[in-house]
Amino acid sequence: MPRASWADSITPYLDRTEAQIQEFTLDNGMKFIVLERHEAPIISFMTYADAGGANEPPGKTGVAHFLEHLAFKGTPRIGTTNYEAEAPLLEQLNDLHEQIRQAQADGDEARVKELQENFRAVQQQASEYVVQNEFGQIVEQYGGVGLNATTSADATRYFYSFPANKLELWMSLESERFLEPVFREFYEEQDVILEERRLGTDNSAIGSLVEEFLLTAFSVHPYRQPVIGHEADIRNLTPKDTWEFYETYYVPNNLTVAIVGDVKLSQVQDLAQTYFGRYEAGPTPPEVQDVEPPQEETRDVEVRFPSQPLYLEGYHRPARTDADNAAYELLVALLSDGRTSRLYQSLVEQEQVALNAQGLNGFPGDKFPNLLLFYAVTAPNHSLDEVQTLLRQELDQMRQQTVSRDDLERVKTQAKARLLRSLNSNSGMASLLAEYQAKTGDWHNLFREIQAIDAVTANDIRRLAQETFTPENRTIGKLLPS
């Protein structure tokens, strides 16, 4: 489809959709964004906490992700057969845990053994009151689908969909789990997360390299911290640490809810006031203060692992709110989006030095200045040096030559098509509305994306390549066979 006809066809759709979206804010500061879509009797919900790995205090990495796990454990009424009997046991477990840590610090092994036996006995008592996954069972019983949550460097998201006649049930469940969370099975979940880290980082070639790569690429900004958390930090986290993070960041003015589907705004407003209006307003959470200084020389890191060699190369770029954000997206798309991209054609198809070659934008997050990241897995009998040479040639070509109109139009079309596919899905729309509100300060910016993509020129691409792909802005990561 020619450029003019594409723009003519989608602009009215975007304008109509944007005009249909409504918003309101409760007195406690909690924001709701609502899009009525009555085509099917389904509603998708997104609760977006503007708190992720980058917000964690030093020495307490992983606490945002830990809290995400605990948010499914229930409340005084969900997840337990008798909270009055369970609650003192949970307090007793916390006291015993602190005593164990003190005895370990004192080197009193006999005392440690005695306390650990007591701890296991109380833990067994507490477990007898637990109703496993009752929150999820309720959601499933009433037709809910897609119940899940994710923690990233930038945010924590909780989402699922319900039949249209279960709006009030969602309001009740979601408000209660953040109004009165109970951190039951804290120590069992601690073991689960430690195992998750072992599998995804410590025993993973890629996970190990990425963790070291971020520690190298960022010197001060908390994007250098792993979202899963450092092992020692996970082990040392306490319910008190998690509660402090919850009280700081899960205040209503730091939560955004997006609701898309077969709903009426008036009903959403009434129910939101009834259920979420119970939340007390809290102080504005602290902003991330650390600013990454400009990189002044190439940095590199090597990790040895019994694995196929892997190459990473990253370059610093500004945050998502930068005026050139769309141009950065298209720059990476030209290099690595699909089998027609330059990296795939050069490294995989023509020279066959890599099994795969791709790029990522906004790594590990994009709320703050972040990285363009390129990676390639070497093909058998080829080296990381060969991969590096060819990758660098493609980056240099972007610096030296102006991209053709046809190539630029192709990636623009692909980018707009991806965005439109997300907007057509209730869950995708809910996710994007909440994200743009939290990250850019206004969900309306979502509907400016098409214009931003269209406005990018070939000169913009070349200018950014020249500014970005410099030796002093480069971080290299190599995974070498042990």
Automatic annotation (TrEMBL):
<protein>
    <submittedName>
        <fullName>Insulinase family protein</fullName>
    </submittedName>
</protein>
<dbReference type="InterPro" id="IPR011249">
    <property type="entry name" value="Metalloenz_LuxS/M16"/>
</dbReference>
<dbReference type="InterPro" id="IPR007863">
    <property type="entry name" value="Peptidase_M16_C"/>
</dbReference>
<feature type="domain" description="Peptidase M16 C-terminal">
    <location>
        <begin position="236"/>
        <end position="414"/>
    </location>
</feature>
<dbReference type="InterPro" id="IPR050361">
    <property type="entry name" value="MPP/UQCRC_Complex"/>
</dbReference>
<dbReference type="InterPro" id="IPR036531">
    <property type="entry name" value="Rbsn_Rab-bd_sf"/>
</dbReference>
<dbReference type="InterPro" id="IPR001431">
    <property type="entry name" value="Pept_M16_Zn_BS"/>
</dbReference>
<feature type="domain" description="Peptidase M16 N-terminal">
    <location>
        <begin position="39"/>
        <end position="82"/>
    </location>
</feature>
<dbReference type="Pfam" id="PF00675">
    <property type="entry name" value="Peptidase_M16"/>
</dbReference>
<dbReference type="Pfam" id="PF05193">
    <property type="entry name" value="Peptidase_M16_C"/>
</dbReference>
<feature type="coiled-coil region">
    <location>
        <begin position="93"/>
        <end position="132"/>
    </location>
</feature>
<comment type="similarity">
    <text>Belongs to the peptidase M16 family.</text>
</comment>
<keyword id="KW-0175">Coiled coil</keyword>
<dbReference type="InterPro" id="IPR011765">
    <property type="entry name" value="Pept_M16_N"/>
</dbReference>
